Amino acid sequence: MEDSSTRLCFGHDGHDASWKQWIEALAVSKNGTLDRMLLNLLQQDELFRWHAVALNVVGYAVALVLILWLSWKFYYTPFVWKRDLTDIGYNHVLDNEGIGRNDKKRAHTINRLRRLRRVGQRIPPPYPNGWYGVLESEALAVGQAKSVDCLGQNFVVFRSETGEVNVLDAYCPHLGANLGVGGVVRGDCIECPFHHWSFSGRDGQCTNIPYMKSGSIPKTAKLKKWKSLEANGFIFVWHHVDDSVEPWEMKIVPEVEDGQWVYYGRNEFLVNAHIQDIPENGADVAHLSAVHGPNCMSGSDLRTYRPAWAEFGMHAWNASWFAPEESDPPHIARMDLKHSFKFFKKFEFCTVDVKAYQIGPGYVQLMMQTGLGPMVALQTVTPVEPLVQKVIHRFYAPRNLGNAFFQKFAIWAESVMFERDMMIWNHKQFIDSPLLIKEDRLIKSYRKWYSQFYSENSTSYTLAKENLDW
Ligand code: FES
Ligand SMILES: [Fe+2]
Fold it and tell me: Pathway of this protein (predicted)?
């Protein structure tokens, strides 16, 4: 008989005989004990081999499912970035005092810093006239009511059962409950949580008092109805100190409005500054290379955002700001901006052409052309306190794989850049007559243009503050 162990070694790899042949050969061997042992070993070995194959298959399948799930998540999940008042700009003191993120002293220290700030003199009215974003459309489902506090007002914003958005004063004229806190939408009305009086979303009139047995509903049982509209992913409220002034028409972005472009994400910030300071950034062209020139990879902290290692790449900006022409709507100003990323001060890439439309005091549409196609960022700035602004950007672009990567990177980079501004805004003074040089002249033009949003009767900064102090 041939040496079966030698054959076994060769045959194990299946070079010259199949497994079946080996097993058959061994079964007819004269040395029964050895044959049985070998047969056993072979069967165990084969079992082991199939186990290994099965484990491999399961491993690959799990990895594949994981990769597909992560790609799907990455492709379809919007990128969200959120910072509140305590997140940006206070680390120079918090670090010195050894106060960490979860330290109880954190909020107290930041509030102390906010109180110590000399905010400036002759501060303009904090709530200029215009359309303001009060909620994002997706934040209000059919039949849902929310309370929104901004512009020195308390609103109840609700979506009727047919999908219409209505904005009313939040406080019930009966005994003062807030309809945004526990109010229930019924048809196109909202029912107060306290005694179930109902108010129509169409005009704010009370339509039902469930326990009234006699008489009729008083005419004065009425809530103020605010003009509102829904466009480009936001719910806007018209806020004007003079009720007789008709609102201007909202500028629609068709690609967003009709759903051709995809929503890629958003960021949200609470900024400690006067509203006028935020869009002034567009006309302040000199700050662009100072604040936004250093590489975005080096982060947003102005104390550390210019490290030597990041100098291999810098952002280059070229900007101009334009007041509207005579034939243009007076409430829309424009900024043209060109961005590129310069590698070793020579090689330019990632060029972006931006046309930004500043629409009224608190809304900007940034239409961008990038190497990967068009995109838009929609910004709302809404005063929630005289010197606290809620700023939201929402980003849209056509759906494709390149965009899924690029958009998320762009939202991150924009968030970093915005935080650099925020660190300045959170601590700056408002200067009514700034010391401007010739090269700063666009700031002057901007302030002149912006002044149209204040009326003689606009609530002053001092009064607005008093209204909130109680
Ligand atoms: S307080 Fe609203 S029904 Fe009484
Ligand atoms: Fe800026």
Answer: Steroid hormone biosynthesis; dafachronic acid biosynthesis; Hormone biosynthesis
Q: How far is the CA of 199 from the centre of ligand 1 (A)?
A: 11
Distance CA 407, CA 463 (A): 42
Ligand that comes closest to the CA of residue 217: 1
Residues 59-72: tens digit of each pLDDT: 999 999 999 888 88
Residues 128, 152: Cα–Cα separation, whole Å: 11
For residue 143, how far is its CA from the centre of ligand 1 (angstroms)?
20
Separation of CA 386 and ligand 2 centre (Å):
21
pTM for this entry: 0.86
174 lines ligand 1 (CB under 6 A): yes
Q: How far is it, in rounded angstroms, from Cα 142 to Cα 137?
A: 10
Say how many residues make up the chain. 470
Residue 363: which of 397, 313, 329 has the closest Cα?
A: 329
Band of the pLDDT at 26, cuts 50, 70, 90?
A: low
C-alpha 148/C-alpha 295 separation (Å) is 37
Q: Which of 395, 361, 360, 392 is nearest to 379 (CA)?
A: 392
Give the closest residue (by CA) to ligand 1 atom 3.
195
Does the beta carbon of 273 lie inside 6 Å of ligand 1? no
> From the CB of 194, is ligand 1 less than 6 Å away?
yes
For 175-199, write each residue's pLDDT tens digit: 999 999 999 999 999 999 999 999 9
User: Which H or E run contains 152?
Assistant: none
Q: Residue 205 CB: number of other CB atoms within 10 A?
A: 16
